[in-house]
Design goal:
The complex is a heterodimer of chains A (327) and B (369).
Chain A lengths: L1 H27 L5 H11 L6 H10 L6 H13 L5 E2 L4 E2 H36 L4 H15 L2 H16 L18 H38 L2 H8 L4 H7 L1 H5 L1 H25 L4 H10 L3 H29 L7
Antiparallel strand pairs in A: 1-2
Helix pairs in contact in A: 1-14, 5-6, 5-8, 5-12, 6-8, 7-8, 7-12, 8-12, 12-13, 12-14, 13-14
Chain B lengths: L3 H6 L2 H11 L1 H18 L1 H4 L20 E4 L3 E15 L6 E12 L1 E11 L3 E9 L18 H37 L1 H15 L3 H10 L7 H31 L3 H8 L4 H12 L1 H25 L10 H5 L5 H6 L5 H24 L9
Antiparallel strand pairs in B: 1-2, 2-3, 4-5
The chains are: A mainly alpha (327), B alpha+beta (369).
Chain lengths: 327, 369
C-alpha cells in the first residue's frame, strides 16, 4: 500500500511541472509586463519616472533574462513558498492567499458532502422505483439544477432569502463578526451563511451523480445474487443496502477526481456573486487588473488542490475496493 | 420493428429516426431548438427594435402585458398593449410604472417598423410584430438605458447560440484529430497525448478560462474577442471527446474490417476517415450535442463576470451582466429573462442529446436478444 502511494506521489510531479509551465505562460500572456503596469499606476498618481529608474526596476525584477531563466526563478521561489508580489495590493501574494484558500477548501468539501447526501439517497430511490413518479420528478429537478447557471441560482436564492426571511445572505459572516477572532458565535454565524453557496454549488453536481448512482444500482439489482436473495425472503431494505448499494457506491470515490475541478470552478463564480472571502473574487480582481502573479499563484494552488484530491480519491478507492491491486 | 424480417428492409438511418421519434421529449426539444435557432438567424426581422436603440420614455420599465379585451370596446381580435404611466416614488426615488389606459398601441404583424440592415446585406423595415410609430412595444421590459430586452434577447441568441455551435465544431475537429492519432498510432504518441489530457483536465476549468479570456488583448475587435472565446472554450473541451475517440479507435483497430482494409493497401488516413470514423460518427454527434450546453453556460458565466464578450456585442451573458446583484433583481426582476432562455436551451440540448444517444445504436436495445 505504501509503495502504491509513493508511486502515485511521484507520478504527480511531472503533472504539476507541466501545469506550472502552463500557469507561467498564463502569467506572461497579457501584453506588457509587471513594469509597464507599475509605471501606469505610478503615472496615474502623478509621479515622474525617468528612464534610469525604469532600467533599475527592470533589473530588479530581472525582466531582461530569457524566459526559461525567469520560469526557473519563478518556480524555485514558488516551491520555497514565495508566491511573488501583488502589484495591485502592494503586498506579497502569501499574505493575501492562505485564508481565502482555506475557505475555498471548506466550501468545496461542504458542497461535496451536500452533493453526496442528496444524490446517493435519491439515486437509490430512483433505481428502486424506476420509471415511477419520484424517478421522473427527480430527473426533472436534476436537469433543472444542471441547466441553471450557478450565478443565477445564487442570485435567485439571495432574492428568496431577502424577500422571505428579510436577511441579507451574502458573505460568509455577518459584518460585525467578520474581523472577530474565532469563537462559537462566529462558528454559528458561519453555519448560517455557508448553506447558500453549499446548495448552489452542490446542485450542479447532484444531477450527474444521481444518474450514475441510479444506473450503477440498476445494473446490480438485475444480477442473479439479488434475485436469489429476494427469493429466499431477505427483507427488501436489507436486500438493497447489504450488497448492491455498497457495490454501486464505489464509483463515487473515484469521481471525486473529476468532481473537484467542477466544484472549485463553481465555487469561484458563486463566491463572486455572493461576495465570499474566498479565492474566486480575488482571482477575478487580479485578472481584471492584470495582476498576473497573484492570479497565477491562485490557479497553480487550485490545480495542486485538484491533483491532491485526485490522488486522495485513488488511495481511498484502493483502500476500499479489495478488487483493486496495487501493482 | 421487432421482427428480423422487417429489420432487413429498413435502412439504418431510418431505424435511427424511428427510435429517436419515440422519445417525445427529445423530439420536442429538437423542434424547440430549430425554432429558436431560426429566430436567432433572422433576429433582425423578429426583433422589434435594434439592440442599441433607446426609448427615453421607458427606463427600467417592466414588461408590457398583451391585452385582448378593451374596457370600452370589449373583446377584439387584434391584441394591443397600453403605454407606461411613470411616477417617481417620492420616498425611494424609484421609478414606478403603471399602465396608462389612455394610450393604446395595437400590435401589427408583418408591418414596417424601425429600419434595419438585414445580415448587413440590404436595408429593410418589416418586422414580425411591431406597433405604430407613436407607440412602443417592450414585451420583456427595458434596461437602464431604455433598450428593449425582448429585442436584445433575440440578438443575444444569435451570438450565444452560434458560439455554442462553432465551439463544438472546433472541439470535434480537435478531439477527433488528437484522439484519433492517440488511438490509431498508440505507443509514444498515445502516452504523450494521454498525459496532456490528464494535465488539462486537472486544472479547474473556470479559473483557467477566466485567465485565458482576461488575457485577450483589449484592442481586439468584438468579432476577434468572439472567436478568441470560442478557441479558449474549445481548448479545454476537446479533452473529453478525445478520450472517447481514442477508446473507440483502440477497440476498433483490430476489427476484421479494419484489418481487411489495411491488407488491401488502404492508407492510414483513408482507414481513419473512410472506415473508422463512420462507424462511430453517431457517437461523436451525440457527445457533441451534449457538449453544446456546456459551451453556452461557460460563455454566459465568463461574460457575466466581465471577462468574456464585451459590451458592443450582445450575448445572453452580456445581458445578464446587468443583473449583478440582488438589489437590482428585487427592483427589476425582468433583467433575468435572458437567463430563462439560457436554462431552456441548455435543458433542450440535454434532452435532445439523451434521445440521440438512445437512438444512435439502431440494432441495440430490444433487438439485441
Amino acid at each position: 500500500m505504501s509503495g502504491f502511494i509513493l508511486r502515485r506521489l511521484l507520478a504527480m510531479i511531472p503533472t504539476l511541472l507541466i501545469i506550472s509551465v502552463i500557469v507561467f505562460i498564463l502569467i506572461q500572456l497579457p501584453p506588457g509586463d509587471i513594469i509597464s503596469a507599475t509605471l501606469a499606476s505610478l503615472q496615474q498618481q502623478g509621479m515622474e519616472v525617468s528612464t534610469e529608474q525604469i532600467a533599475a526596476l527592470r533589473a530588479q525584477y530581472n525582466l531582461d533574462d530569457p524566459m526559461v531563466v525567469q520560469y526557473l526563478r519563478w518556480i524555485t521561489h514558488f516551491v520555497q513558498g514565495d508566491l511573488g508580489y501583488s502589484i495591485k495590493y502592494q503586498q506579497p501574494v502569501n499574505t493575501l492567499i492562505w485564508d481565502r484558500l482555506g475557505y475555498t477548501v471548506l466550501i468545496a468539501v461542504a458542497s461535496l458532502l451536500f452533493t453526496w447526501a442528496l444524490a446517493i439517497p435519491i439515486g437509490i430511490y430512483s433505481a428502486v422505483r424506476q420509471y415511477g413518479f419520484g424517478d421522473y420528478f427527480f430527473t426533472v429537478v436534476g436537469l433543472l439544477g444542471l441547466a441553471i447557471p450557478n450565478f443565477m441560482l445564487a442570485l435567485i436564492l439571495m432574492y428568496c432569502g431577502y424577500s422571505w426571511f428579510g436577511v441579507s445572505v451574502g458573505g460568509l459572516f455577518s459584518p460585525e463578526l467578520a474581523e472577530a477572532p474565532w469563537s462559537s458565535a462566529k462558528f454559528m454565524d458561519l453555519l448560517k451563511h455557508i448553506w447558500i453557496p453549499m446548495i448552489v454549488i452542490g446542485t450542479a453536481g447532484t444531477a450527474s451523480i444521481m444518474r450514475v448512482m441510479r444506473a450503477n444500482l440498476l445494473d446490480e439489482l438485475s444480477k442473479p445474487y439479488v434475485v436469489t436473495a429476494r427469493a429466499k425472503g431477505v427483507r427488501p431494505l436489507k436486500l438493497i443496502m447489504k450488497y448492491p448499494v455498497r457495490i454501486a457506491i464505489n464509483p463515487f470515490i473515484s469521481t471525486i477526481g473529476w468532481l473537484l475541478p467542477t466544484l472549485i470552478s463553481g465555487e469561484a463564480i458563486v463566491s463572486i456573486v455572493l461576495n465570499l472571502p474566498t479565492t474566486g473574487p480575488l482571482l477575478l480582481q487580479a485578472l481584471l487588473s492584470q495582476d498576473m502573479y497573484l492570479a497565477g499563484s491562485f490557479i497553480m494552488l487550485l490545480s495542486i488542490l485538484t491533483v491532491l484530491g485526485m490522488l486522495l480519491s485513488d488511495i481511498l478507492l484502493a483502500a476500499l475496493d479489495p478488487r483493486i491491486r496495487y501493482e | 420493428m421487432s421482427s428480423p424480417q422487417l429489420l432487413q428492409d429498413v435502412s439504418s438511418a431510418r431505424l435511427t429516426w424511428l427510435r429517436f421519434k419515440r422519445h417525445r421529449l427529445a423530439l420536442a426539444s429538437g423542434i424547440f431548438l430549430v425554432v429558436i435557432y431560426l429566430t436567432a438567424g433572422f433576429c433582425e426581422f423578429f426583433a422589434v427594435y435594434e439592440p442599441n436603440s433607446r426609448n427615453p420614455r421607458a427606463i427600467y420599465a417592466p414588461p408590457q402585458q398583451v391585452h385582448f379585451i378593451d374596457p370600452v370596446e370589449g373583446f377584439q381580435l387584434r391584441p394591443f398593449v397600453y403605454g407606461y404611466h411613470l411616477t417617481i416614488n417620492p420616498d425611494t426615488w424609484v421609478r414606478e410604472y403603471t399602465e396608462d389606459h389612455s394610450q393604446k398601441f395595437p400590435l401589427q404583424f408583418f408591418a414596417p417598423g424601425e429600419a434595419y440592415q438585414f445580415w448587413n446585406l440590404f436595408g429593410a423595415s418589416r418586422h414580425f410584430v411591431t406597433v405604430p410609430d407613436t407607440g412602443y412595444l417592450h414585451l420583456f421590459g427595458t434596461d437602464k438605458l431604455g433598450r428593449d430586452i425582448f429585442s436584445r434577447v433575440l440578438y443575444g441568441a444569435r451570438i450565444s447560440l452560434s458560439l455554442g455551435l462553432l465551439g463544438v465544431a472546433l472541439t470535434i475537429v480537435l478531439g477527433v484529430l488528437i484522439g484519433g492519432l492517440a488511438g490509431y498510432l498508440g505507443g509514444m504518441v498515445d502516452n504523450v497525448i494521454q498525459r496532456t489530457i490528464e494535465v488539462l483536465q486537472s486544472i479547474p476549468t473556470l479559473p483557467l478560462w477566466m485567465a485565458l479570456s482576461a488575457a485577450l488583448p483589449p484592442h481586439w475587435s468584438p468579432l476577434g474577442v468572439y472567436f478568441g472565446i470560442i478557441v479558449i472554450l474549445s481548448f479545454i473541451q476537446w479533452t473529453g471527446l478525445a478520450r472517447v475517440v481514442r477508446g473507440r479507435f483502440l477497440a476498433l483497430r483490430e476489427e476484421d474490417f479494419v484489418v481487411a482494409a489495411r491488407l488491401l493497401g488502404a492508407g492510414r488516413l483513408r482507414i481513419i476517415f473512410r472506415h473508422l470514423l463512420p462507424s462511430f460518427m453517431s457517437h461523436i454527434i451525440t457527445t457533441a450535442t451534449l457538449a453544446i450546453p456546456g459551451m453556452i453556460l461557460a460563455e454566459t458565466a465568463l461574460s457575466f463576470l466581465g471577462v468574456g464578450l464585451r459590451a458592443p456585442i450582445v450575448s445572453w451573458g452580456v445581458l445578464l451582466q446587468q443583473a449583478q446583484n440582488f438589489q437590482v433583481i428585487i427592483l427589476t426582476p425582468w433583467l433575468l429573462i435572458p437567463g430563462v432562455f439560457v436554462v431552456l436551451v441548455v435543458i433542450a440540448f440535454n434532452l435532445l442529446g439523451d434521445g440521440m444517444r438512445d437512438a444512435a445504436d439502431p440494432y441495440g436495445g430490444s433487438n439485441s436478444a
